[in-house]
């Protein structure tokens, strides 16, 4: 009998074989057993236009953003130089107009 591997996404042992793919009923992840799986998930951040961002890129805001906890508004078109990518509830740490801000990548475009 063939040994079915655990789900690579959630490590569930309740996976099953469906045609040419394995399927996890808990997280709905599907994968091809013949395709090599990488053990390291590469952290990638894309801007609102789908361009890949890397540390040190320059970005431009695509809409006005109100900063939480203050009355300050970051205006559309404001530029940040030398961003830093982070993994968490936001993807970008940067300085805009001298203030340190944390942004989601969906509100910026690559300059």
TrEMBL record:
Protein YjdM N-terminal domain ranges (all copies): 4-32
Lineage: superkingdom: Bacteria
Gene3D superfamilies: 2.20.25.10, SH3 Domains (2.30.30.40)
Protein YjdM C-terminal domain sequence ranges: 45-111
NCBIfam families the record matches: phnA
Homology family: Belongs to the YjdM family.
Protein name: Alkylphosphonate utilization protein
Organism: Gilliamella apis
Phylogenetic placement of the source organism: Bacteria, Pseudomonadati, Pseudomonadota, Gammaproteobacteria, Orbales
């Amino acid at each position: 009998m063939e040994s079915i591997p655990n789900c690579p996404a959630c490590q569930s042992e309740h996976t099953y074989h469906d045609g040419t793919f394995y399927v996890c009923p808990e997280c709905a992840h599907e994968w091809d057993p013949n395709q090599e799986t990488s053990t390291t998930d590469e952290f990638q951040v894309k801007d609102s236009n789908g361009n890949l961002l890397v540390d040190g890129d320059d970005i431009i805001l695509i809409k006005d953003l109100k900063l939480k906890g203050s009355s300050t508004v970051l205006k559309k078109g404001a530029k940040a130089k030398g961003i830093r990518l982070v993994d968490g509830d936001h993807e970008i740490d940067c300085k805009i107009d001298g203030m340190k801000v944390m942004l989601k990548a969906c509100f910026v475009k690559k300059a």
